[in-house]
Amino acid sequence: MLQEALREIKRGTAEIIDSQNIEKLLQAYFDEGKTYTVKAGFDPTAPDLHLGHTVLLQKLAIFQKYGAKIQFLIGDFTAQIGDPSGKNITRKTLSKTEVLENAKSYKEQVFKILDSSKTEVVFNSEWINLLGASGMLTLTTTFNVARMLERDDFDKRYKSGTSISISEFIYPLLQGYDSVHLESDIEIGGTDQKFNLLMGRHLQRAYEIGKEQSVLMMPILEGLDGVQKMSKSLNNYIGVTDEPNDMFGKVLSISDELMWRYYELLSTKTLDEIQKLKEGVENGSLHPKTVKENLALEITARFHSVDLAKAAKDEFDKVHSNNQIPSEIDEYTSDEEIWIAKALVDCKLSPSTSQARRDIKQGAVKINQEKINDEQLQLGSGEYILQVGKRKFAKLKVN
Amino acid sequence: MLQEALREIKRGTAEIIDSQNIEKLLQAYFDEGKTYTVKAGFDPTAPDLHLGHTVLLQKLAIFQKYGAKIQFLIGDFTAQIGDPSGKNITRKTLSKTEVLENAKSYKEQVFKILDSSKTEVVFNSEWINLLGASGMLTLTTTFNVARMLERDDFDKRYKSGTSISISEFIYPLLQGYDSVHLESDIEIGGTDQKFNLLMGRHLQRAYEIGKEQSVLMMPILEGLDGVQKMSKSLNNYIGVTDEPNDMFGKVLSISDELMWRYYELLSTKTLDEIQKLKEGVENGSLHPKTVKENLALEITARFHSVDLAKAAKDEFDKVHSNNQIPSEIDEYTSDEEIWIAKALVDCKLSPSTSQARRDIKQGAVKINQEKINDEQLQLGSGEYILQVGKRKFAKLKVN
């Protein structure tokens, strides 16, 4: 039982600091039913989660299965503070109301994965404001400048002459202090957070709270391209609030290699089950596309429902396998003749006219299911089904 | 009138930043009687002032003569904070009661030089505590790490691998913020404070209070040795609370060269008057010792009274010129035969028996006005006048 739990907990992790402590906590849970705390911090400014974030959330769910109380920490304290460049010191980035709205939105999303009865949503402004000015100054006595400058990004910026605001030295201390206040037993985060996660251990020692948290780091999930990390700004993400059809289609678009990575980090299938799928593909008894569809169904069902996931699959099959137009597409109207590139932008099929022209050049644009190649085409009055790539459609009526 | 005031203000200064602003403030005072503020910060842990500190105080007194309201700032906020090495983060260095006691002691000393009706004694804990944790973090957004590391001492320590606590980056910001809160027009300090003094200008600009303080820096006063800076730990100081005889004698002990330096920085004589003294010594109409006695009288009278200063001079003359024993000396008793070196320590004439033995070797020790050279001498029962050097006496009774 303990070994199985440890195997699930260690699955897909990039690094664990003090795994002995984790074993002890689990042992105490199995022996005496004793619970323990696992902390994870979230940014209060970006409540739109994507699958990259759910890698952590699913690990937290595993911990919940084995006795953990999750400390879901929203780092709202720093959101009260202005521009770290110091140019607008009176401007606050987020109001209290906005933070609470974001928190509500977080909860709606994360409780699709986490068990709300074993999750405490906490805001660090609560205890950091109580630190006061003197508590803040005390906090800064616990760490030195040279060691802070050893953090990878600081080191690079300092050496390249890029400005580092002194406030940026405070943020890791605050994150660490959260672990002091919350008396966390374990903290989990991405590998890019290693320095800050270890700060929690350091400060728990400095403040002598009688424990030092273990640190469990998850790898950064690759985006749909399989190369860069999943992020909104790179537009290679699957959002937790994406529509079922989008979600299903995006999973289907990934490479077979990335599929196995997603299975490891995102599926709730056990490692044994995944191994069987791999063997099936290798010995030819399973088609990789079927395995990918199953993953897409699992993920879509998690954030919507089994029925909606199945409907998304049907819709996908209809569009792709039969080259049909989807049953529901957005409709737009133009009151005058319109240039094709502008039409693609207005119908939200291309982000810009220059991208639209590239799409046409590359043969990715169809009108009424016919490929076009005239970038200068003007659309006169009539109705058009516009299509970019395989999955983006719009109906345009020109008056 | 303005020119005379400026001349007095600039006298002995090491550097002035934005002297145009000082001229404007003085002009407004002479034209419209408009007052302005001059800030000076003092350490709450060390209320025993010596003449090194009075260089600043006398400059403040000059400003008071010309319309300034003095902001006598006691930096008690940081005294609330523990050890900057972070080893004892819960220990506070000074209690509120101690800070207030020290402040009382400060007042007793500084109002011998400053006009109390034109002086506001303020404690920065008052407004810095109000900053709270978020105000502190905001403060740290206003400055960057690289520029902080340019401060001479930080630069040296960073390069040599000596630890710098992050809290040490906060102190200059707090000092600067004091100038924001107090809306100081001018701040004065020692040349060693240049970085921190300029921080006041920087932060007044960042917080957009509509003014930037001028900065007036005084040189660091040399101690009695004429080489190292006056300080308690080097034991080359004249304390503001020194007894009249000590004070007078210490001034008389300095070199002629140092005497002129002290005249410039410590005397209330005008520059013209000092010039006349110099000419008198040069043309032989004045003996340097007379000039030094006048300085010793002036300084002793400032912290005690004219009568006590004159009495100290008489006593000094009695001891030195006539080689007599002073009229009042401390008396000690030993209940058994005592080794001379130990006797000198017990009677507070030598700091240690090893120093006492060196004093004897160098012929600096007399018993009953007779020089001795036996380091092993034992004093049996009887009464002894012990003497080390020219000015240190004690009476010892051995039973």
Could you tell me which chain pair has the largest interface and how many residues each side has? A-B, 44 and 44 residues
Average pLDDT of chain A, rounded to a whole number, is 91
N- to C-terminal separation of chain A?
A: 68 Å
Identify low-pLDDT runs of chain A. Answer: none
Main location (chains A, B): cytoplasm
Pfam family, one (chains A, B): tRNA-synt_1b
Binding site for ATP (chains A, B): 232
GO molecular function, one term (chains A, B): RNA binding
What is this structure's SSE topology?
Two copies of one chain form a homodimer.
Chain A: H1 2-10, E1 15-17, H2 19-32, E2 36-42, H3 51-65, E3 68-74, H4 96-110, E4 119-123, H5 125-140, H6 145-149, H7 152-159, H8 167-182, E5 186-190, H9 194-206, E6 214-218, H10 244-252, H11 256-266, H12 271-282, H13 288-303, H14 306-321, E7 331-334, E8 338-339, H15 340-346, H16 353-361, E9 365-367, E10 370-371, E11 378-379, E12 382-388, E13 392-398
Parallel strand pairs in A: 2-3, 2-5, 3-4, 5-6, 7-13
Antiparallel strand pairs in A: 1-6, 8-11, 9-10, 9-12, 12-13
Helix pairs in contact in A: 5-8, 8-9, 10-13, 10-14, 11-13, 13-14, 15-16
